[in-house]
Amino acid sequence: MIEITINPGAKIINVPSGTLLLDVLKQAKISIVTTCGGQGSCGKCRVKVSSTAIKGSLLNLTEKKQLSEEEIKEGFRLACQCHLYHNSTITIPSSVLMRNNNSKIEEKSISHLSHYEFKPVIPIKKYFLRLNPPTLKNQSSDWTRIKDELNRVAKIKKERWFIAPDILGNVSQLLRDNNYGMTIVLYKNEVISVEPGNTSKEMYGVAFDIGTTTIAGYLIDFSTGKQIVAEAGSNPQYIYGDDVISRVGFAGKNATNRNIIQQELISFLNQIITSLSRKTGINLSRIYFAVLVGNTAMHHFLWSLPTESLAFSPYIPVLTDEIFKEARDLPDLCLIPHAKVYSTPNVSAYIGGDIIADLIDINIWGKNNNILMVDLGTNGEIVLKGDDKIWACSAAAGPAFEGARISSGMRAIRGAIDRIIITEHKIRYQVIEQTRAAGLCGSGIIDLIASLLKLQLIKSDGRLVNQEECPKGISEQIKERIVKECKSNKFLIVPKEQSAEGKPIFLTQKDIREVQLAKGAVRAGISILLEQARLKKDDIDEVLLAGSFGSLLDKDNTLAIGLIPHISSEKIFSIGNAAGRGAIKLLLSEDMRNMAESLSQKVHYVELSAQHSFSETFTKSMIFNLER
Ligand code: FES
User: Which one of 148, 192, 282, 431 counts the least CB within 10 Å of its CB?
Assistant: First the structure.
């Protein structure tokens, strides 16, 4: 065994000699960015290893390709490639460290359900029953007496009540131990739990938004229909890659992997539920209903459905219907066995229940104007509502907007530059939590490119100009930031002396290319949906930017890079986590659940790769000065 010390935090862990560094971190429950899922292609899992540890662990070709000479000298290695043979000290840069290490879950709150009107209808009812003890004159069964009393207190003439044998098995003892008083928990006419004493005021539900990057859980008090508390953390599947396809690749290898990925997901849901319960002092056994929304892959992972066919043309999910089951159908989910569990229906392999939840939140069926909704996450899902139809497509935008595949990219966490303005003379930026800058997150990247486009330092084809090509008026301080590297240029944002990790932060030509690919895919998707709907960009009444990334975007810069068609910025609205709010509405209304089912059938899915105009539109859409 060898001893590994991991910084920050000086955490010590013992592992067998030869253990892969990434596995060491996993065992230590430390999460780092692994965009490619450990394939060695993203170069994001760079960590610093003490020099003695490097002995016996030669750099492989992948590391030589991904790491600069300077980094190698400093002792940086790729965690997914480097095996450790000696006692070592590992230092993880802040831009590589994921935010929910040691299962710490961050609180997130939804201050209001949304601006769209909504009437909650609680799906669970509870009744406290005090039964007359049986006598020799009244020998009715326990269940008969419960049903009679239930009819009386619920003021129902005659209902066919149902109860599962395992619940019924507890009833007899429970009644006798509690002086014939107990609380019945009902979902419609089905008893889903029995509880000693009067607990009729305690009833809760939980709604989950399972994103590829972040999982958020919201605890709802059924007695008021209000959210009490919310939690969010990084999806633990990140170790299999940032994007859905890498994870599908892992899960698709065999049934064991499929179960692993399901278990990891369920165990993270359990962490959130437990944390919600601990924070509020609410007993877990009082949570009776869970709604789970997520994209089609997350939905399939959760229910351990095969995902292989999602990854290959013609991209077929196993099912698109809603799933309405009980907690006991999800192995080890920490809710009572008969708690109801509802998963939203999907539309297709790449338009999932999360988009349905977005549409539920924005009340799409109640609108009579033309709406374009763009949900930018690891993928770009686009929905267009015209006069009487709804079209949707998914653009393979890749995770560039989340900072992945960008040389100095990182998520929108502490140390990320999330706002930048560059003028002819100055560069100004804002760092999350006002600390030293460690990298650029998606909104910072968009601001940066928009600024450089406005100054004509980036040409419409995406080329970053040489110092000599800078337009008149650009000061020397700004010009000097353009650095030649091999055959292309890069733009210095933060010099190494000012950065958090002592490394300069650049925007490279390759980074600009990544953004062009991402924005080109989204913009092409929008153009094709407009074509399908026979609408022009000026016919769009509202553009809704969904998702946490959407809420960080500067509208003008989003327009400047051509991510969305050039329309008045007054028509653009950030709607934040609509999927989370939609999940809560689905929890609180059967009508909404029925609407979700009908929406999943009504939305016309457009497969972009099957459109003959797609490659031409995509190529055009990559250009920055798109026809306005
Ligand atoms: Fe290690 Fe991508 S290179 S995770």
Answer: 148
